[in-house]
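Lecture 7 notes: from sequence to structure.

We start with a single chain of 495 residues. Read the sequence below before looking at the structure.
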Amino acid sequence: MIVAQEQAIFKAKTEFNEILEAVRRAAGEGIPIDEVEKDLWSKMLSLGRALLEGYVERQGNGDLGERVEYEGRSLRRLEGDRERRYVSVFGEITISRTVYGTRERQRHEVVPLDARLGLPESDFSYLLQEWDQAFCVQGSYAESSRTVERILGIGQSVRSLEHMNGAMAQDVEAFRISQPTPVEEAEGAILVATSDGKGVPMRRESEGAGPISHGRRKKGEKANTKREACVGAVYSIEPFERTAADVVDEVMRKQCRERRPMPQNKRVRAELTREIDGEEVAGKEITFSWLAEQIRERGRNGAKALVCVMDGDRALWRMVAKYLKWAVCILDLFHVMERLWAAAHCFHAEGSDEAEGFVKERLERILEGEVGRVIGGLKQMATKQKLKGTRRKRLDQAIGYLENNRGYMRYDEYLEKGYPIGSGVAEGACRHLVKDRMELTGMHWRTEGAQAMLDLRAVYLNDDWDAFHEHRVEMNTCELYPYRRQIQAEWRMAA
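Now the structure, written as tokens:
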């Protein structure tokens, strides 16, 4: 055993000396720095693997004698050491360990060396898993595999990365629960909840629609279908008092005010409708239940104002009525503007100064609390100009939208209190959390895989990536090795 330990360390020392000699030789020969850098990186990976092997060898094989007492039972040392594959960021090594159990063919109940080293359940190191999935949450599995192989020289299949993603995502909920409530000093005076929906392209065969046809599709037939992910976001913010004229100037110029307060402690997540514990649960229910929980934790017993800013989706507003009954409901201003532009183009040419003036005037009046008069004015214009056909249909749709959401358009009150009136956070979350990853070229998902990716991507976008992995390693180690403290004590006694 001692000989093997010394050999591993000697190998690492030899490789290090060879690296020094290679640098001296390169300097003397004037080799271009990019070639030296590339050669150094390869050698450093090899050196890292040698040092890691040396570290493992110095731990021994975990032999604590003929028997180990565990949970009131005496486990015997099974015959022969068992080898285990371990894929680190430096490459693959083999770890030889003593195992303890009751019978040769039954599971190994205690593996002292695994516990001492804190090995993961899979063959892949925690660090490699973290790096792998940091690429995977941003780009396709295939591209991530190529990138990691280019950097580390470690080849991994798409299937392996998908499986790793799903296993890692199982730890997200426990991590969310463990997170502390933001301290009051880091919070704004207003809590904001917002939600929106974004479609995820699904594999038809995974959704019970039968296998994909390889023949030519019929007219109107789609290659895949989409399932909506309900995106939710919650954050706090300081009041921002403005006049109607201030807002019109800002949105028409498409330029944010410099003094605009920034969202604090923003948290986002996305949920698909899926089966949980044998029952189908709607993504909206999961998202709004989480939003309500967040509000309860951060609301300081109702001391903070709560507003909910969304578009005109009736299903989402029903969720607000169910889970956030006390919220001030605000219709996203930019969806109002879309309808005003649609109305303007019923009377004026697109891109014309007249259309812009039409929108600007009515937007300011809406912001001043004259929603009813603006709606009435649009109806009068349609009658006076005898609008017909497609233009009349578009105008009626715009008017209907404003009428249906009139109760959420008390903008004069919202501005006076400094409330936010735009749902850009939710729409941004839909784009960054869902669209930018889930709708990459050729992407088609199964529900389980899509939700796993959404969970991990939310962790990444919430800037919780490092904290999540620290929590995950700690929790997994406790779960895999409940006997770790006992083993460490016995190890010290044996030493």
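Residues 333-418 form one domain. Keep this in mind for problem set 3.
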